Amino acid sequence: MKKLVKYFIEGLVVFVPMALTVFLLGLGFTKFDSLFRGRLPIDVPGLGLLLTVVLIFLIGFLASNYLGRKLFALVEKVFTGLPLVKLLYSAVKDMIEAFAGDKKSFDKPVLATLAPGGSAKVVGFVTRDSLEYLGLSDYVAVYLPQSYNFAGNVLLFPKEAVKPLDIESSQAMAFVVSGGVSCGSS
Fold first, then answer.
1. Average pLDDT by consecutive 10-residue portion of the chain (186 residues)?
2. 184, 140 in Cβ contact below 8 A?
3. Suppose 68 and one of 27, 46, 57, 62 were both cysteines; which one would form an S-S bond, judging by CB atoms 3.0 to 4.6 Å apart?
4. Strand locations in the chain, DSSP E?
5. What are residue 123's DSSP bridge partners?
6. What share of the chain is helix, strand, coil (3-state, %, to 5)?
7. CA 21, CA 91: separation in Å to the nearest integer?
């Protein structure tokens, strides 16, 4: 029975973020499509997708000026004040910012040696240079994305076991996520 519960919980952890993302994107596209369906002289398939992209650009434009930042800060304060919403909102926001925001976390690709003197290596990204608050001043945090998956692990490596890679972060990410099939170059 414990294994069944464990499988169910693991399934939820994988299924819910994916399903929620697909559901929300689909809902957004179809709602925008339905707003204009029948109101325009011609039916424009994909109008919801186009309007969603335009809306995202508009929000980006608003968020880049003083009044917009204040407005979105107020909305964020409301979101982070609600228990379940805070959890979902914070996780999604942190992940988006890690890849695309001002606080990019995956901008330091590295090659890390798994065991002292060992030959096995992993490609990852240094996400924290200092772990003094954990009492590990000579360690760094390295995020290791998983192949064919939107998940990963954070491992703590001694600094001397981590070597910076002289490649773009996008190349390193493409290499890992594709299981080594893609080199990520254009």
1. 74 68 78 74 74 81 84 86 81 70 74 88 88 91 80 86 89 81 63
2. no
3. 62
4. 109-113, 121-128, 139-145, 152-158, 162-164
5. 111
6. 55, 15, 30
7. 13
